[in-house]
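Sample A.
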Amino acid sequence: MTRHVEPCMGTVFTIDIRDEGEWRAAIAEVVTWLHQVDAVFSIYRSDSDISRIRRREIGIADADPLVSEVLDRCLDMQRATDGFFTARRDGAFDPTGLVKGWAVERASRLLLERGSRHHAINGGGDIQAVGGTAPGAPWRVGISDPHDKRRVVATVSGIDLAVATSGTAERGSHITNPYTGQPAAGLASVTVVGPALTAADCYATAAFVMGTAAAAWLDAVPGYEAILVGTDGSAVRTRGCPVR
């Protein structure tokens, strides 16, 4: 087992490779990729492409090609979520709701290309897992109670899965309803489980904005399941959620 922890994007990324062998070169590539994404997309770095776009110093066509790729993904997810996920905040372009999950999913693909068949990358609690902890052994991910971080609401398990959570536990009321302009209310957290982290992350954000109506909406999203925790502590699961 090889494990690496890397601070980046204002959070911590954990790269956990369960394959035998030497993985330092592949991990170095993943680390370089994550810092490249931060350099391009951070809204907290004045020299990032996104900050320069927001100041209207450059256009999207003048920025790193990754910006156009992410913008296209954001527009796809906006359409898929009926506009509840958006890449705009306070009238400005802000794709950060998609970028971290997208960066982790791409980093996982890089490890696959380097030959890893059993690994997980955790970016601030959003996880893309490939294979299992060993051949035939599923990954298990505990879902924290947003009202009490010492408590686990449920554990999801599976082979080849992504897990993403949106809520108020870590950063308070930071998710805005694009239709009202007000902080999203009605739920404490939404955890979405599926095959790909980019989509899972966006679905979790959109569902959190939807509030209590999100459970029925998520039940109709193919390939993805969810656990929704209300502001009163109650938990609801979609029909096929792989929990115990």
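Sample B.
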Amino acid sequence: MEVAHDMKEYWRTIKTTVKTLKTGLNTTARHLRHATNSRSPLAPEVDNYFEKHEALFTVQYPKEQLPIPDHGRYKLHNEIDDCIVCDKCAKICPVDCIDIEPVRSVDEIGKTSDGTVKRIYAAKFDIDMAKCCFCGLCTTVCPTECLTMTNEFDFSAFDFAEHNIAFGEMTPLQILEAKEKWDQAQAEKQQLAANKVQERPQRSAQGTKPKLGTAKVQVKPKQGGVSDQAPTKATERPVFRPKIKAVQKTNDANDEKKPEVKSEKPTYRPKLPKRKNED
């Protein structure tokens, strides 16, 4: 009985193996039949974007590329003509991938596309994309919206130095000239301030007395008209003395004087305890 039961289990296992193998082969044959047609790239907004089982799955990159969303966080780009070198992007960057060297200008050097005045040169504006974490904070705080993220996502390189992108357009000679102009303007400003300080003791040595402002007398106009004369001493108010009426005395003998009754309050004298020394 045990031998017959083992034989039934053996043939049942073989039957299940053949059935599952047949199902897998049918699935493979169906994919081979559909793979003869290549699928065209679809945008991510399309409903069947992820349904690739009806065509070739592999994309011939870089000849073929799938569309990417327009609002994505990819490679950074700075429009240096619209940059006012405010340094906000470098301050908010959590990984310090933006390096800026500003050089102040004495005069106005131009305007951005939105009309903002530019007074600072960008002697150095480098972005290290190898450090960038693609958070997008630098593009949010940019006041002129010159710092944006492009659709370029494939910028791989063999050397890390190639990821450091320089957006500054000034030559070393132009940077040196701009720094010299600024230093010269600051030196002239300090010299002018020093000359003003030296002129003050010279004027006091000549005997010129500073003019002191005299206090103006405030004149209150009268009700009848405006008085041009200066006011005299303040008039004192009259002392108010009330009048006391005299008591009329009657000489009539018949009038009897009424006794005056005074209500006296009882005096309360507290009893004090005797001291021991008095006994």
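B remarks: The radius of gyration is 52 Å. The mean pLDDT is 78.
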